[in-house]
Amino acid sequence: MSLTSPQTDPGPSPLALDLQSLGQLVRKQRIACELSLLDAADAMNVDAVLLGHIEDGQTVDTDSLLTVLRGLGLRLLVMPTGDAEVTLRMLGHTISYQPAAPPNAGLSDAGTSFVLDETTPTLFVDFDGTLHVGRAFIDECNQITLDSGRRPMEFAPLLVELLEPYPDVEIVLTTSWLQKLSVAEVVSHLPLELAGRVVGTTRDIKPRMSYVLSGADRTYVIVSYAYGHRLKNWLAIDDAVFGASQFGREPGALLAHFLLLDSARGIGDAIPRQHIRRWLADVHHDRSF
């Protein structure tokens, strides 16, 4: 019988030779904590873009880096090379001074790189207070009536008209109808011209309680979807996107992505329609260069 103690896996080496290897350690620790990038950033009171930059090995200010390390339970230990080698060997690690692989190479946490490189114009669309006036009541037979007595999807043809010159625009649904109806049932209430543009919904993104209590839960799930899908060109039209100024790397950085509607008028109001029309023109102009 062998008296040799079984070898335990020491885990990934804690040696960070450059920003790329440090970023990989940060990403692995976040994943080990079972935190999404947005939730981790929120818990540490840092911007998700900044956290994404750290994980991608990009340069950030030292204070922010130390804040993230502390927030994830990591510490930066500085010592002479010889002492570091002894410490690593005592922890069961071999010494390698090879530079880290490029960001995201071989990592399983797909989609966490924070380069916003998906340029497809994307419109986040609510129903109540946006495509019609009133709140929906959904009965046991999944029949829809509005508390305003108005017709559901009254303003949907206006959105069809706005989008008609831009066939590449995609739609992500944010409506509360998704809490009671299947995605297929929700989409079926849209005109065919809009239904064919739907590529996703935010139904599976659960907001943190702090956002629910502050009324910014709809805004949170939209930002979470946009970041998770690396969207660059997006606009949310909604009567419940409150607190948008608290999201983004700097206060107000994402305000231009939100169009807060008057629930009594929705996109029946000419002013928000002009805003949407201008956004469509601008985003397509930018993509042409």
From TrEMBL:
One family name in Pfam for this protein: HAD_SAK_2
InterPro entries reported in the protein's UniProt record: Lambda_DNA-bd_dom_sf (IPR010982)
Lineage: Bacteria, Pseudomonadati, Pseudomonadota, Betaproteobacteria, Burkholderiales
The protein's name: XRE family transcriptional regulator
Top-level taxon of origin: Bacteria
GO molecular function: DNA binding
